[in-house]
Amino acid sequence: MDILLDTTIQIDRITGTKQRQKAIKDVLADRKVYSSTYVLGEYYATVVSDLVTLYALFLQDKDIGETGKRITEQVFARSQSRVSKLYANILAMCEFDVEEVEDTFQLYMDLIQDEFFLNLEGILDGTKCVRGSRKIEYEDNIPFLPEARCRKSEKICDICPFWERARQEAEKLMGSQEIDGKIRGILHSAKHSEQEYRGNNCKTLGDTVISLEAKKSRHALGICSSNKKDFQPICDAIGVELAVPDYSRSQMPGSKL
To answer: Which of the ends of the chain has fewer CB neighbours closer than 10 A, N or C?
Structure first.
């Protein structure tokens, strides 16, 4: 079975530990691998945005230790973990030489954008996601990520036609009690007003969109995600195979089963 990579896998195969990268390679072995512009949009909204934030924190002092402190004081929730991983990767690349950190940031800005496409057979584009059409830009040598205006009132992508093509699958999702109630509520509302598919609701429906991209693809794809908790009920409801890399500590040398 060939496979569509979700955002968690795209992030981990670029920024994850060697253990996680190996686990991903193991589960993807002998498969053709795809991703999508919707996944790319999530990727830019998370890890790429976090990298831009991290660089801004570094520029305040241009000091390795102070930047580490600022991460713990000014970055929160999931972003803090992602920023910490990014910072560790950058410091490893420059061997903790503060004179090289700034140049390494510049290199990593290009690297993190380019490596999304590494070893992909193709990119699905059924949603025409505008968040996935962005690139890091610079103003006075300071990077920024252009805004992507995703609002219910504005038709700027093909998410509504995408869901129209997936009406049967949407009914299955609404009929499954294993699916999160908020997702089912949005889908019920969208039956009467297609704009309910847009804006923040589109982000809430993200895992279902990615799963449907695999289901509706002419390549008959499965999904690869580290987020089994959220993806398994969705995949079960619409009939998509889910592959999950083994991140368990039992794989670590010297660990006990």
So the answer is: C
The dihedral sign for the CA sequence 129, 114, 52, 142: negative
Cβ atoms of 109 and 58 closer than 8 Å: no
Q: Residue 51 in contact with residue 142, Cβ under 8 Å? A: no
Note the pLDDT tens digit of each residue in 81-132: 999 999 999 999 999 998 999 999 999 999 999 999 999 999 999 999 999 9
Q: How far, in Å, CA of 122 to CA of 154, rounded? A: 28
- Please provide the size of the chain in residues: 257
| Distance, CA of 100 to chain centre | 29
Instruction: Provide DSSP, 12-59.
Output: HHHHS-HHHHHHHHHHHTT--EEEEHHHHHHHIIIIIHHHHHHHHHHH
Three-class SS string for 108-160?
A: HHHHHHHHHHCCCCEEECCCCCHHHHCCCEEECCEEECCCCCCCCCCCCCCHH
**CB environment 94-111: b (16+ within 10 A), e (fewer):** beeeeeebeebbeebbee
- pLDDT score recorded for residue 165: 97
Q: Rounded to whole angstroms, how far apart are CA atoms 177 and 50?
A: 35
